[in-house]
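User: Could you check the structure of this?
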Amino acid sequence: MAQSPSDAASGAKTNQEILRRMSLVGSPKRRDSLFDIDPRAANPSLGLSGGVISATFCIPHSLQYRKGKDWGLNSRRGTSALFDSFTYLSSDKTPWNHTLVGWTGEIEPVDELTPPDTPPAATTPVAARIPAPLNKNSAPIPVDAFAKPVEAPQSEGLWICKEDKNRLEWQLAHEKGSKTIPVWLADDAEGVTDGSLCLNDQSRWRRFAEHELYTLFHYKQHEPTNGRAERQSWADYYRMNQKFANRILEIYKPGDIVMIHDYHLLLLPSMLRQRVPHMYISFFLHIPFPSSEFLRCLPRRKDVLEGVLGANLIGFQSFSYSRHFVSCCERILGFPSDVGGIDAYGGKITVGVFPIGIDAAAVEREAFTDPVIGEQVLALKKMYEGKKIIVGRDRLDSVRGVAQKLMAFEAFLERYPEWREKVVLIQVTSPTSVEEEKEDSGNKIANKVAELVAKINGIYGSLSFSPVQHYPQYLSQEEYFALLRAGDVGLITSVRDGMNTTSLEYVVCQRDDHGPLILSEFSGTAGSLKDAIHINPWDLSGVAAQIEYALTMSDDKKSAMHQSLYHHVTTKTVQAWSNSYIKRLLLVLSSHNATISTPLLDKATLLQQYRSAKKRLFMFDYDGTLTPIVRDPAAAIPSERVIRTLKALASDHRNAVWIISGRDQEFLSQYLGDIKELGFSAEHGSFMRHPGSDEWENLAETFDMGWQKEVMECFQKYTELTPGSFIERKRCALTWHYRPADPELGAHNARECQKELEKTVGKAWDVEVMTGKANLEVRPTFINKGEIAKRLVESYGNEVGEPPEFTLCLGDDFTDEDMFRALNGSNLPTEHVFTVTVGASSKMTLAHWHLLEPADVVSSIALLNGGDTNIADLGPLAVVEGRVPQEMPGEKIPDEMPGGKL
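Assistant: Sure, the predicted structure tokens are below.
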């Protein structure tokens, strides 16, 4: 982008071109916005510290390790736009104090080889140096050209001492451009106390993200497997996100903004929210997000969605991706949502669209001021003199559409024979950085591309000319910009893409020549570059027609198209993206700052406290907590899995397990009474049965139940007015259920019934009218679950060492809030108490944690006691143990489904 009149005149061919560029120069941007000068003063209610912590999977450097020496830092390929945004946030052009947190990436050891100037003194006996007699088994083995070479055995790992770790951290902290904090990913080595690390199988930290998430998010599915490898890779993925959370919390200060990037860190927002509930968090996804039909195929779909929903603001490249995300939250999690965001955990999570740009000024400066690039441009044009040049630069993976591009080019040469010998496609394919694509069996993609290139050149080429020039290699920056400048048409045919920066860089490099851009409608850039020629890469004849249209376009049309594209690319830069994204986050935080959200249950912390405690107390609601809510309450019987898990939990003598339910004694005795170690509280605390006993204690025995007659008459009246509703009579309470009735009619009549009861029975008797999930219950005031919870805690005693060291309380509705209130007001240490609300509603709650559904409750219990190893989550266990266990502790129970559940 021209910065001055002299810049505008440089390279211009006409007066109109000079005037067009001058119009884009404009006056210097005024920085009179209070946000630009001091965002803290612009948002006083937020208490901003001025710090921004960006979390991305890999740091911008690939590392070379030399023991005892400075580390080698080379620029990492890919995600240049994202790295440019980090550089900008770290510069003096912004008011922020920026820190980047990222994994070191796979560390490459460099062997220091000493030239053998002088042979070393002989220390080996002469006899040992005499060659052994030849053995017939040592004869050369014929080489099979199609067999894979034998891989060298894996080494024991790369050891990095504490001093070298500190040296790298110092180098990165003082690196020009951005302060960087590395995340070290390794198993906790047994017996190592000096701070050194052993790096084994370093690529495994990518495995789940790039094998499972990347492929599915690009609408590709794997063949079914037994799930074992996925369980292991999921545990690594979970632990990696936890290590990122730990590293961020080491440097976090209250008021810092944490910006998380991309699919490798989908769990990080929630993990940070669990530790610091009021942290300011944003998450941005740089790749596509799939529709709910595809996301349903991911076994860990709930964990992924719940992880992202720990953020205050979630950003996407295009509107379709944000729409898919909102739809998934509604269809898979059941959270209420609209185009603006999702209601979850008692708060509002905002969803927005923020197409990222590039550092256009830097690209233009580098592309047009380096004389070497200018010489290379002239050389390319001379080499293909008299021919039109179509340029393409893509990574060699299945989503970039290189094969579709070549097939479309073949169709173009077939349909438009007049262009044969007059056009050349220069296609550069760099190796993919995605782990899944690297393991492409048999290099199918590379072979397909090579076959197409050979076919096109064989049919339409000659001895002196090949219409496709294919270069499977990395290009230097000079060669890349020279190629973009020399091109007459840019052709991008990705079949699924996030943000394609090649298209943006092509527009900048065509500043003087105005070459048209042909862009796939499936690219995330297509929504931003609306004036480009949009194509469907699957429609080969359509792409061929658009290539012909671009080659024959008039200069006026090319100029008009390029002017619009150039204006967009040079104004919607990565710097503008960074500013607008943070501004939107601050706006969201200001509008929802008073909202108190309930984070997901931190299972790793739960497991850690469970293992350290000798006395543990469990209190579970039944309906909606251990079993799903069903239309007919009588059908809500516990599954075999629930019974097995509770039995294993209660079998530990250190565990006191209680079911505190609104159900009556008969139901609880019938379905769970066989587990003698369980304690029961029925009818919201009216009756108790202690572990090991068959006798029920009536806590309301002396209370006058005369109120029940009036309540029964009222309930009967509304039962007649509400077809499908019915009355459940308990010994100390009466409940009117209207779930089977029409939802609107039932809810309306429940409100009317509640008003009538509160005016009559509620004033005459010491009872309360409770609203539940599609029911209305009347019970004595002094009877509630909170009193039972208080009684159970007090039964341990209040002296030092007597109270339980671990208390877990789970419930799903209004009646369970009494338990949460009682535990929050108790004298138990906060870190020893886990109050958890269950359900997908966005309700306000007194609980400190949240779980989505009863299946999550059962898997959390299984994690603690190893009762049902197939449903427990390896991720939290790997965090606590510092490594991925080969199997879950406890008894292995066969699952109903082959391969188990992830």
